[in-house]
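re: that complex we talked abt at group meeting.

here r the seqs, copy pasted straight from the sheet so there may be weird spacing, ignore it
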Amino acid sequence: MANEGTHNVEDLHLQNLTKKFGEVAAVDDLTLTIPAGSFFALLGASGCGKTTTLRMVAGLEEPTSGSIHIGQNDITNLRAFQRPVNTVFQSYALFPHLDIFENVAFGLRRRKVKNIDAAVNSMLELVELAPMARRKPTQLSGGQQQRVAVARALINQPDVLLLDEPLGALDLKLRRQMQIELKRIQTEVGTTFVHVTHDQEEAMTMADTVAVMNAGRIEQMGHPADIYELPKTVFVANFLGQANLFAGVRTGTSSDSIEVVANGINFRVLSARNSAPSDEVIVGIRPEKMTILDLHDKETIPSGHNMLEGRVIDVSYAGVSTQYLVETTWGQNVTVFEQNVLVGDRSSVGDPVVLHWSPDHTFGLAGGETVLADTAQILAVGA
Amino acid sequence: MAAVLPSAGKQSQVSAQRKSRTGYFLLLPGMTWLAIFFAIPFVTLFMTSLQAPVAGKSGQYVPAFQVSNYPDALAEYWPQFLRSFFYAGIATGLALLIAYPLAYFIAFKAGRWRALMLVLVIAPSFASFLLRTYAWKTILSDEGFITSFFNALHLLPDDRILNTSIAVVAGLTYNFLPFMILPLYAALEKIDPRLLEASNDLYASAFTTFRKITWPLSLPGVVAGTLLTFIPAAGDYINSELLGSTQDRMIGNVIQTNFIEFRDYPTASALSFVLMAVILVMVFTYIRRAGTEDLV
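got the structure back, here u go
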């Protein structure tokens, strides 16, 4: 299965993949194509089905229905050890009785590959662990063990490399370092990486494509920046970063935009940025896209901007930015991030303020009661 | 600062000393126990093994340095020695064959039945060792269904099981089986199932995974289990006494008879020492060859 020299991998296709545990569908009718050579992230909260999806691709979990293909090759019924897929496990799962060299050589030895020594040594070079070859896993630091786990999987030149929360056990600084490292390795070898994580920042920094999963389904998929700038569902808006949401009703439509009234305030949403199919629209805006002004500076707001009045109820200074909590006239709390680039007075608690933002940053989401109930639940879980 | 630091250092040194002394105090009860019930009898036994008989008075001995007790005892009883190690070896092998799959099942597959199965493993120990061996006498008796069954198949050379070496080995295997199962279970249970998944993911079939991952990682349990079975089995005399014939006597029986019936204390003591020495040598060679210190 190892491709000597050129590595012509093929796309990974999941077709109507479903996994039920009893009556509960952990993965619900998932259809997905992961392009060859991409760095793909499956992002979601714990229990959303992302790890189950990964384990089904690895062959460690049997799908209830559906199929898995690599190119034209149906691997659904292959056993784990027969698949051209390797996994970097969450806790690395390095073999404690074997040294680093033998851990990395394990897959090659099973397939009776020739020139194992040379292959292992060059792989250890790639992950910068050559001097550690004869150590046991327990003698290595967390970051080093993580690199061994990557090397052990990658040396088999799998068509797809699966990473199950690979950085979860590392501290923040090391995690940042390993994010860059993993990205470098992926660019160097060109293998398809499927990365499962609950850390939105990790997913966004590393992946070319992010799929946000919720309750066994994919909510939205695309380039990280596209999803962040234009979320299509309330779940995505809240899970990927923060969002201020105002539930309203569409009152008018012009050539390129729609008017939505929420809590008595008129908002303009560009038609291209509205994904609500009906008149019930939730208006959304990211906290850093809003500008906070003193109420008496209201005249300086450019025409056509959306705006909102309120009163500051909390200010927290965080170095690069300041986070304001603003209470609107109807009692909703709105979060605003302001970059600390201005010299001078900031708004303080109790100040009457006005918030404004461009329709270019405003997005419209499908409204309705069920969606709002979901939102409340998500926010409760997130808190 | 400079004035404070040394005194702080001294203080921590004192507390460290106190800590290390606490360790010794904790050892005290155990050490006392060992001194009274092991070290002193050990020395007494050794001195007895070198005693010389009083001429004309059977059962009476005087302190001496009669080293010839050792070769004399060995010359007379070497067949029982060999038989003991042979029986104990077979019983240990059988126990390993029976215990490994069982321990594997309990560790990896038993799920919520795990605790119950472990209790069942040790449950026989609630009845006395002697009683259980008597029970085997009934089970293997000539009229019993096991003997009838094997006789119907013409599988028994002497047409019986009781009072043969088969019964002795069966009894030894049965009686020491829990000492094999428990350490095996402890070792297998510690193996992270994700290691098996990782091996599976890295092109190893179930059998290769067992050979390359499960077996090597369970070796500490195998070593502990075989030692815990072999050592008491080699010195056992109850099974041979109750289940075997006079042709199946083990070294434990010889020692017991010499002490209690013949009142030949020096020979019995010398045999005890030789048994101890042989087992020690075997254990050390075994542990070194198994290389347990390399295992996690």
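couple things i noticed - The radius of gyration of chain B is 25 Å. Chain B has two domains: 4-48, 68-294.
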